[in-house]
Amino acid sequence: MTADPAPPVKLVYFAWVRERVGMPDESVALPEGLATVADLIAWQRSRGEEYAHAFEHADIIRVALDKRHAPHGALIAGAREIAFFPPMTGG
Amino acid sequence: MTADPAPPVKLVYFAWVRERVGMPDESVALPEGLATVADLIAWQRSRGEEYAHAFEHADIIRVALDKRHAPHGALIAGAREIAFFPPMTGG
Amino acid sequence: MPPAATIRIQSEPFDVPAETARLTAGRADIGGIVAFTGLCRDEGGRLEALELEHYPGMAEEEIGRVAETALARWPLLGLTAIHRHGLIRPGEDIVLVIAASAHRRAAFEAADFMMDYLKTRAPFWKREHLIGGTKGPWVEARAEDDAAAARW
Amino acid sequence: MPPAATIRIQSEPFDVPAETARLTAGRADIGGIVAFTGLCRDEGGRLEALELEHYPGMAEEEIGRVAETALARWPLLGLTAIHRHGLIRPGEDIVLVIAASAHRRAAFEAADFMMDYLKTRAPFWKREHLIGGTKGPWVEARAEDDAAAARW
After folding, report:
1. Which of A46, C77, C117, D58 makes the best surface tag, with the fewest CB within 10 Å?
2. Is residue C118 part of a domain?
3. D118/A contact by beta carbon, under 8 A
């Protein structure tokens, strides 16, 4: 038996991350080998000029896995919606 | 020349101090020799049963000289209205 | 120049939205408003009312002195303190403090400070009136109120 | 059992007295209410409006998680948090937190905590719209907001 291909994941963008990527969300089949949020951000940077710009300063990008904040070391396996955004400025 | 007699002072009472003394205020010519708030409280205790009761626990009595809080060591000379009351419980 | 504080001692209820609107009217430099309202509790159903005695004249002056301290210490854009006296029923308002500032920290700290100092310095005394019509005891000052004021 | 918190994300303005009345209606065990209102400043006259973007779904959930933490930590009798999104003009309200408790300390601390955590955890982003119609920059997060949240 071979492993089932991973289902596509919804990637969601907000504020200037959204503007730089150029879309509010997309459905993507992630490549194998991405274990953590940090791995995913590194892969995003490789996807073209817009992504390289949006994820230029990886350390300030905040990530939510299925609408919960996640540190860059968190495992992404199982997440169906992954959001990327700048530090929050509400309130 | 002899010293002018000290003008009478208005003594004012609040809450259970007022109830124990039995009046809201009185005009009194203070005897000579009372220098501080503590001296005045000690004298009050000597004025009869009601006063002895009202000023029984001298340390918890709060005093205001002309509507300003004053510690027991404060000098009373010059004050025209001296108020006595329990610790405040407003707010 | 710090704004003038609004200080009032009154027997009638106060109107929180009207007092807030008075601070914000015609300006757009306020970023945060903290409003504290103190209410009369029924103490598990045994309280008919609270009687609030005060020292007329000194009450306004002393709250004014506390307000001057707050205005000197925090960059406030507005400050209001209203304290009621007389007979107050459970559920009714007793005291209101509103602090406004450009950023929230000053408003929170100033309102908190005002309440701690009102509690321990403003000449008001509460007495309980119990259900059934008997006058209960004078409320005793709480050591934790002094401790709270000592934080500042 | 702690009360349920009221959490709302909305574009329309909120009504502070109505929200306060909702917490106090029919009860007489509340001794203190702290209401914090955050407003849009005009930043010295250069701001036309703030645009507030948010992450629908997560905004409610995250504020709900912060509220659960507050309810577990302080003996609250009521807790409300409302955050607006969309275009907000100078002088208008942005955010409201109301905390009610028997004694004032819990209400002050819980409201302060809620605001610190809303600022740093609720998924909202502000962008300035400048007088004259140009879109200004996204507001940058302030290190002092993180420091404020770290106090708790």
Report:
1. A46
2. yes
3. yes
